[in-house]
Design goal:
alpha+beta; Glucose Permease (Domain IIA); eight-stranded mixed beta sheet; Dup_hybrid_motif; metalloendopeptidase activity; M23ase_b-sheet_dom; Cell_wall_metabolism_enzyme; Peptidase family M23
Amino acid sequence: MELNTLLKKYQHEFAAVVPFNWQSDKVLKLDLTAGNPDLHTIDLNDTKVFEAYLFGKIKQANAVCGFGGYMENRYIYQKRDHFQHSDESRSIHLGVDIWAKAGTPVFTPLAGKIHSFQNNDNFGDYGPTIIVEHELENTIFFTLYGHLDLASLNGLFEGKFIEKGQRIASFGDYPVNGNWPPHLHFQVISEMQGKKGDFWGVCKPSEKDKFSIICPDANIVLKLDEKFYE
């Protein structure tokens, strides 16, 4: 069964990944594309300035968090060397971001085992990252948690069993989290392609179709209310 279909089949069984209630809490969808004029007026390489902008928007909306990003063509990566390549820059976001204060807890949506973990310590990268391996109906897939705090990596080892709904991490702060305003990058991956502790979270526009199959919409697992998500 296609992973996208399988996830939808079991969607009602997934535990919450973050401590917010999508039905009762107010959340703000953030636009990080070139179509957002605000992004052209601030220094996106200055994390403190970028954080003030994002969290100012969240506070203004009286929301508990901001979110968005799956397959969004993001302007914000144009200012970070990590995403620049000689042939074509990466700008298509493959996960869903949840923007909230550092220290926000992170939980696993279903049982699994630690596939791998590492600190991707580059400007614009994931920072501390955990990847968990899951299985449904004999289908193996993975969930990735990026931009964590360093303490989230303590006590981990490959193969460690993780229970459904178990707290495994916390949102990190910059500069530890890859120099981003505090948020969780959550991504679903069908095959790791030999990678450990890391996986592409942003792809080139020309590779969008390929990666949409490898990385189905993480919103299916997060269960963000459809009225907020397009």
